[in-house]
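Agenda item 2: zinc ion complex prediction
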Amino acid sequence: MIIKKKEVCCLCGKELQGCGYRYDQWGNKCCLAHVTSTCESCGKLVRRGQRFCPACRRSQVSATDKLRPQFVYSEVKSRLSSIGMNLPTETVDISITDRTELNRLATYKSDQLTGLTISAGTPFGMRHSIYLLDEMPTSRYKETLAHECGHVWLNDRFSILNRQSIQEVEGFCNLVAYKVLLFDHTKEAEIARESMLSNPDPIYGEGFRIMKRRAEQMGWNRMLASYS
Ligand SMILES: [Zn+2]
Ligand SMILES: [Zn+2]
Ligand SMILES: [Zn+2]
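Presented output:
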């Protein structure tokens, strides 16, 4: 016996009519009548004007959260160490901050900015401050944190890569984020990786693809060794 499940709209819950529907890459469908856009983090259908879907909204990391940032950082750190990138243990501070503050601290101001790393020499060695944008869904937060950890790793060893082009530096850090996301066997992470692979931005997109090809050619470990 086949029981055909009736298909309902993911936005209003009503049964979908025969005249067509909109759908997203998750297989969600909604009535044609809705004015929609897609969740900035995972690509699910949302109503126009909403940045995130309900699931991503629930996973947002805010400045008042205590446990989630710690959990995500230790996860990112252990993933990095398993791919040969050890971060300094006691000299990395992470703050969650709003866009105004992020732009105040940034050399290159942008509405797209989601994270920032400032490394400074002290008499006791390098100190790194990572600033992350408030209210990002966990998956986006993790991707951004992993990218910034790439900068920490480079800055901590005064890497020669930092003297190369911005495209190579940012491309490398995005490659680090991509590798961290490879540990997540979720559709969300897969969509995030696909969007990195197709990002049209000349620095973060093209730079990432250039560095990814370079890593494939020379091997990841040799690449790390050459930037150490
Ligand atoms: Zn509907
Ligand atoms: Zn979402
Ligand atoms: Zn960066």
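Discussion summary: The pocket of zinc ion (ligand 1) is lined by residues 9, 11-12, 14, 30-31, 34 (CB under 6 Å).
Owner for follow-up: CH.
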